[in-house]
Every structure is written in C-alpha cells, then in structure tokens.
Amino acid sequence: MKAGVTLLIAAALAAPATAQTVEERLNDYPTAARADYIFGCMATNGQSRTALEQCSCSIDTIASILPYDKYVEAETVLSMRLTGGERMAIFRSSAMAAAIVADLRRAQAEAEIICF
After folding, report:
1. pLDDT for position 83
2. I need a labelling partner for 112 at 20 to 30 A (CA). Which of 1, 34, 66, 92 fits?
3. Between the CA of residue 25 and those of 65, 69, 83, 85, what are the distances in Å?
4. For residue 103, which of 69, 74, 75 has the smallest C-alpha distance?
C-alpha cells in the first residue's frame, strides 16, 4: 500500500514538470527568429493579411515539431551550403548535414499542409 501511495505522489509531481517542459519547448523560439521567418515567408507568399496568418501558423507548427536548437542547426547547414569553397563541401555531402536539413524539411512540409 505504501509503495502505491509513493508511486501516485511521484506521478503527480512529475505531471506539472512535464507540462512545463512541453510549453517551454513550444515557446523556445525567440520572437526575432519567428519574425524573421514570417518576413521571409511573406516575401515569398505575398504581403497580405492572409499570408501573415499562414506564415505565423507555419512557424508555430514548425516550432511545435522541431526544437529551436535543431532549427538553428538546419538553418546554419542551409546557409553554409550556399557558401562556395572546398571547406563547405561537408555541408553539402555529409549524411549528418542531410539528416539535420531533412528534419527541418519534414517540419516545413507538415506546416505547409496545416497552414496553406
């Protein structure tokens, strides 16, 4: 009986921490990063109120799927792929770089389905 009570207390204490962690994960994108994404998205999709709503939805969806540190990694790899030179070849050819970008592409595809 005592073990059951201890288990219930432990579960009750763990539940709020889990909820906080999920909320932190959903809100871990800085405002400037969200705004930068939205500005770029609107430049591509039109400068309308509809585009603003769709682009805002898109970054929110991406944030719900991909933690901010993974988003930054993928954006960095994509940026480095645009840079010329022999030293940047690792960003174009390595399996690790491809996997990082693939995670972002999957999140973007999900956002496209949901928001546009």
Report:
1. 78
2. 92
3. 9, 10, 31, 36
4. 74
What pLDDT shows up at residue 10? 42
Helices 68-82 and 49-65 sit at what angle, rounded to 10 degrees?
110
Domain span holding position 107: 2-115
Tell me the per-residue pLDDT of 1-60, one tens digit each, with 9 for 90 and over.
Answer: 454 433 334 444 444 444 445 555 556 899 999 999 999 999 999 999 999 999 999 999
Quick one: tokens of 25?
């994960």
* Type of residue numbered 83: T
Tally: H helices and E strands in the chain: 6, 0
Both tokens assigned to 62: 């991406």
What is the tally of structural domains in the chain?
Answer: 1
